[in-house]
Amino acid sequence: MPVRSCKVVKRSGENGDAFFYVRSLRQEDVPQFMELRRELGIHDVGSCLQTWLTVDPQGVKVMETDSGELVGACGFLRNTDDLAFLGFYCIRSKFQGYGLGMDVYKDAVEHAGNANGALNAVPGKLELYRDKGGFPIVETEFKCVKNYTTDPVDPRNLSSVVPKGVSIEAVQDYHLPAMFDYDYSLVGFERKLALALNCQEKNSRTFVAMKNGACVGFGTIKTTCLGAGRVGPLYADDPAVAEVLLKMLVISLPNVKGLVMNTVSNNITAKKFLKKLGVPVKEELTRMYTKKKIDVDTKKVFALFDLNLTPF
């Protein structure tokens, strides 16, 4: 058995002992990690993961074989000292059934420590996380909704009418302080580093809505590991501003294979936008917490930042 500076997991079978290794995901692992997510058919964004690994370099735990093949993963990224978000929990199909997922999960939970934890539970897993996983608090006001299509969408179906006094611009460095203020006022905790890096990611576009020197909304679109355009975050005080932002985002990234937009179920306007674009609902997830809910004005949340990395 090779010597490695990480947790070692042994499994015995007909062909002898097999050893697996649990460690933190590194930036250089992201391409292989995205291959795993593609195999699972999940629209994750490699550059978004890189951004959040910069925020919390130890936040995603992975398991690998002797040869370096990634077996599975679980992230519990610290958004702040008091808040962590669980996601990316997966094991390759050929390694399932050996209890390996629990080993990588335990390491992720240990990293989160005493922070308030949040997650989006897939259908059928609510009871498991609530009764055995330590997530007793269930959000009842909304579901997190996966919406996507592999077909082209027509942004001409969305409005171009900008409300009076509002300008929508491609983000520049001088916009960042106003964006930071807006984001903090919406979600209630600071994400300055994540937002700054979000605006610099490759194969992405970010637009900001300004009024009288203040940010009144912003949005980003990125290319997923499956080649679609994924909108998120998309926030705005005014639904009319959100619609124009969404239109500009879709137009700005034309050579993609469909559109992904993860929403909250009680934002009725976001549903209308998706209907205009012909993007169907694929799955609804249940938001859960370890200690307390995060109260956010979801009327202003038109697309979530990322389902696996941060609450809104």
Automatic annotation (TrEMBL):
Pfam families: Acetyltransf_1 (PF00583), Acetyltransf_18 (PF18014). PANTHER family: SLL0310 PROTEIN. This is N-acetyltransferase domain-containing protein. One of its GO terms (molecular function) is acyltransferase activity, transferring groups other than amino-acyl groups. Residues 20-154 form the N-acetyltransferase domain. Gene3D superfamilies: 3.40.630.30, 3.40.630.90.
